[in-house]
Amino acid sequence: MGKRSVIPFGPQHPVLPEPIHIDLVIEDEKVVEAIPSVGFIHRGLESLVDRRDYNQMTYVVERTCGICSFQHGMGYCEAMEHVFGVEVPARAKYLRTIWAELGRIHSHLLWLGLLADGFGYENLFYQCWRVREKILDMQEMTSGGRLIFSVNKVGGVIKDIDKEKLDIILKTIDEVEAELETIKDTFLLDYSVQSRLQGVGIVTKEQAHDLGAAGPFARASGIKTDMRKLGYAAYPDLDFEPIVSATGDSYARCYCRIMEIFQSIDLLRQAIAKIPNETDLFTPVKGNPDGEYFMRVEQPRGEAVYYVKASGKPYLDRFRVRTPTFANLPGLCEMLKNTQLSDVGLLVLTIDPCISCTER
Amino acid sequence: MAEVIHPEEQIIEIDVDQLLTKAMELKKAGFRLSQACAAFVNEKFELSYSFAEDKTYQYTTLRVVIDTDTEVPSITDIVPPAVFYENEMKELFGVKIKMISLDYENRFYRIEEETPFGPKNGADASGEKKEEA
C-alpha cells in the first residue's frame, strides 16, 4: 500500500464554474476516497417562505438556478396546483412543455461544451455554445428573458407564444438538429474523445440505484426512469421513452445527454403540432393553500423534488427543493473511487454538477 | 401517445422508534432514497424521508414528528446516500441525529450561522409575516 495523502479539489478549479470542495484521499495517483462539502454560496432561499407569500415564492424559486430556472418555477407551481386542486388550461401545459424542453436543450449543450473544454477540445466547446445561442435566442424571443423567464404562475402561465413564433422555433430546431448531427459524431466517434470517456468512472446499475442517482446519470447506468412519465405539463400527450445506456461510464453519460437533445427536439415538434388553440392561460386560484405535496419534475440533470407544506395562510410552512445534483453527490463519491487523479476533473463534470441549485 | 403512470404516493406517519425498520422494509422492496428533509412546524420537527421506486414510480414518505430535543437514529447504515441529507438536517435545522456514518460536525455547509433554519434562530412557523430585515 502506498502512502496516503489528501488533496483538496476546489472550491476554485478550472473545470468548475461554481464552487464545490472535495477532499481527495489518494494513494500514489489513485483516488481511494472522496469527501465533498458544499455551502460556499448557500443562500437560504427556502427560508424565504415566511417572508414571501406563495405567489411571490414563484419568482424566488425560479432564481434557484440560472440554467434550469424555468423548470424550478414550473415544479413549484405544479406542487402548489396540486395543493389547491386546480387544473391548468391545456394550452398552458403545452407552453410549459415547450419552455421546459428548450431549457433542456440549452442545458445539455452547455454541459457538452464544458465537457469538450474539460477534455481539451476547445473548438468543440465553441461549437456547442454557438448552437446553444440559438436556443437562448428562442427563449428570449418567447419570454423576454434569456435564462430567467418569469412566465410561470400558480394556475398556469402569464405569457403566450403566438403561431409566428412557434414557426420560428420549428425552423430553428431544424437548424440545431442539423448542426448537432455533426457535433454528435465528434463526441461519440472520435478516438481521442473515446479514450478519455470510455471505461472511465463506471457506476453499475445496482450502485446507481443504491446511491439514489437521478436523471441522465442514473439512465446511463441502465435505470429506465424519467419523471416526465408521471404526466405533468403536456407530457401525457407526447410520445417518448427514457433514453438509457447500460455501460455506466463517462461515455454513456455523454451519449444519454446527446440523445436527449434529439429527444427534446422531437418533443418540441410534437408539442407545437398538438398545442390547443385556446385563449385561457391560467386558472384563477382563490384563497390560501392548505395541505402538502411532493412534486417530482425531470430537470435536465434529473429528478428534482419540490415539497410544499401549507396551513391555510398566504405564507407556506415549508418549501424545500431537492435538486438532482444533491442526489448525485453520493454517486459522484463512489465513481471517483479507484480512478486516476488526472481523471477527477472530467469525472466531476460528467454528473453535470449545478452547485447553484444545490446551494439554494 | 406516451404511457402515463399514476403512481401511488403516500405519507406514512411513524414513531421515531420505527424509522430504521421501515427504512429497511422499503429498501428491501426495491425503493431508493429520493430525498430527506426537516421542517420546523408548531414547535416540533417534522422529518420526511421519501423513497421512490423506479419501475412503478411509487413514492412513499416516512414522516417522523419529534420534539426539538429528541434524538433520531441515522439511517445511513441502511441507506448510505442519506448521509448528506442527514448532515443537512443537522446543520440547517439542528435536528439531533446520532450515528451518521460520516458526520461532518457542522462542516458540510460552510456557513457562518449555526442552524439557520432551526428554532433557536427564531424561525417562525406560525405563518405570520415577519418584518423585513
Structure report:
The complex is a heterodimer of chains A (360) and B (133). Chain A has a single domain, classed as Cytochrome-c3 Hydrogenase, chain B (Orthogonal Bundle), CATH 1.10.645.10. In chain A, strand 6 and strand 7 form a beta hairpin. The two termini of chain A are 41 Å apart. Chain A is 47% helix and 14% strand. Chain A has a three-stranded antiparallel beta sheet. A three-stranded antiparallel beta sheet of chain A has the order 6-7-8. In chain A, strands 4-5 form a two-stranded antiparallel sheet. Chain A has 360 residues and is of the alpha+beta class. Chain B has 133 residues and is α/β, with parallel strands linked by helices. Chain B has a single domain, classed as Beta Polymerase, domain 2 (2-Layer Sandwich). The longest helix of chain B has 12 residues. Chain B is globular, with a radius of gyration of 16 Å. At the A-B interface, strand 6, strand 7, strand 8 and helix 10 of A face strand 2 and strand 3 of B.
Structural class call of chain A reads alpha+beta
- The protein's oligomeric status is heterodimer
Regions of chain A with pLDDT < 50 over 5+ consecutive residues? none
- Structure summary, number of beta strands of chain A: 8
Order of helices and strands of chain A: EEEHHHHEEHHHHHEEEHHH
Strand arrangement across the biggest beta sheet of chain B:
1-4-3-2
